[in-house]
Amino acid sequence: MPGNLKNTKPNRYIKSDLKSHKIIWEAEHPCRWPYMKILREFSTLKEFYPDIDPYVEAYKMRDNMWAIFEESMDGVGDVWMYLIDGPEKAMLIDTGFGVGDLKGLVEKLVGKKELIVANTHHHFDHAYGNSQFGKVYCHEAEVPQMLKTVDPHIWDYLYDHETRKGIYTDFDVDDIVPFEPVEVIGVKANHIFDLGDGYEVELIPLVGHTAGMSGYLDKHNHVLIAGDITGVGKPKPGDTHPENCTVEALHDCFEAIWKRHDEFDGVFPGHGALDQTNVMIKYHLDATERILKDPESYDEIGEIIRPSGPVKVCKKYVQQGTAIRYDLNSVYKKDAVKD
Which CATH number do you get for residue 172? Predict the structure, then answer.
């Protein structure tokens, strides 16, 4: 079971018509809750098609871009996916947990045009729906871990196999997408995806959370789809670039994209509040600079349980945001070692 979870009812309620219902609730981010409550209960941007996919809500954030919300299936955090409708091709960024007919929803929103599917990173809440799509793209440093998700047993941890009941979230096990092999294509940093008629989306390295974590810069809408940038993970066996899983590597990526801040005016993360201003990146850059200057000057410290044992996790607050999570052994590139 993931760390920092409590089997309790929430102290703040958001009305939901989704087919999923949480059993275990993750540690709450109070600054996120008011945003999510107002958005999900009152926004006129919401499109919900329960006859196609009752597990997600779509929000039309731009004329040709939707943010797709899925409730957490494993108690770690509700997640956003993104769909861009280009002139000739559409692009889906992340595929969620793989429960429900996401492919059917995409066709409802953009029709049956050619679809490019890309992942920010390999984690369960961002890539376990890949089986519906056959071929996915990611940063080349993410390929070793992405290949491990091409496995019919990736969903086993979500439910009790005797009762067929969800462990973390109540859902219909029969709604897990059928497993199909997936072709994983790694591309280099700053790779350009062409959606037709000069519509470009650029892969932006934002490593740290994983060795190949990436954002995607929609150059038409001037938005950065940022993925997970609030935590630095541990390198895993098979990672070709363990030094990417450090605060220093994340800092370098923030520094590089901040130099291009005039190219985007909206930031759409993998979790939490949407359509944040580009200064969000500067605030995260500032936080990583403070960590590098003095890693032990954290704002909070806690503990999570990993297969290798308990690990202390530090948090450095981000202005107008949550925090960057890290452990003291994953700060500098020179100290990076494989787990």
Answer: 3.60.15.10
